[in-house]
Amino acid sequence: MRILVIEDEKKVAKFIKQALEEERYIVETAADGHIGLELAVNNHFDAILLDIMLPGIDGFEVLQKLRASNIATPVIMLTARNTMEDKISGLDMGADDYLPKPFSFDELAARLRAILRRSSTEKTTKLQCHDLVLDTVSHIAIKKGKEIELTTKEYALLEYLMRNKNRILSRSTITQHVWKHNFDPDSNIIDVYIKRIRSKVDGENEKPMIQSVRGVGYRLRDVVNTTV
Ligand code: CA
Questions:
Q1: Span from the CA of 111 to the centroid of ligand 1 (angstroms)
Q2: Distance (Å) from CA 18 to ligand 1 centroid
Q3: Run of H or E including 20
Q4: Distance from the CA of 9 to the center of ligand 1, in angstroms?
Q5: pTM, two decimal places
Q6: pLDDT digits (tens, 9 = 90+) for 134-187
Q7: 126-220 CATH pick, 3.30.70.1350, 1.10.10.10, 1.10.1670.10, 3.40.50.970
């Protein structure tokens, strides 16, 4: 899942980024309202954490412009200004949640999971594809009762495939959702990661769960694995 953090306080931005990366999110940051808005308009994010007091344009304006551009990405407003008025304005302008500073990271993470669930068709915290289960809270993948060790990137890619199981996903779609925006589209990195995931999730004598679709991309199939 890709998260955009628009926050000008360097320490806060760095702390949120590191903590979210430990939770296996792909995180990009912007320290200015204009830059944040541009990133949000031109890229896909699953959620945006938006500070209110920002250089350039403030968080309210960023939010207004986002919604005016028909971008419905869930937004959590982060702010030191915890007045009721601010809270109401933010929510009325289309924010999905509001978190006053200082906040605990655990609370931020839980609220983020909640808004991601709301915007997804998956309402549970566990994603399942045949005998593979992904726990989106603990970030653990389990197959046939055994935990599979995944790196952050492998987890992010597998989670995206599982959320879109049985759909053919082009390399560029995968890139937009799982890699950072400055990613080189000509690189074969997606293929490299798919190979690594396959080596971990496919059992011996099983058909690959992730199917290559020639000339297009990949599809995670939710079918009973049969012996090859
Ligand atoms: Ca600020």
A1: 20
A2: 18
A3: helix 10-22
A4: 6
A5: 0.76
A6: 998 888 899 988 999 999 889 999 999 999 999 999 988 898 888 877 777 677
A7: 1.10.10.10
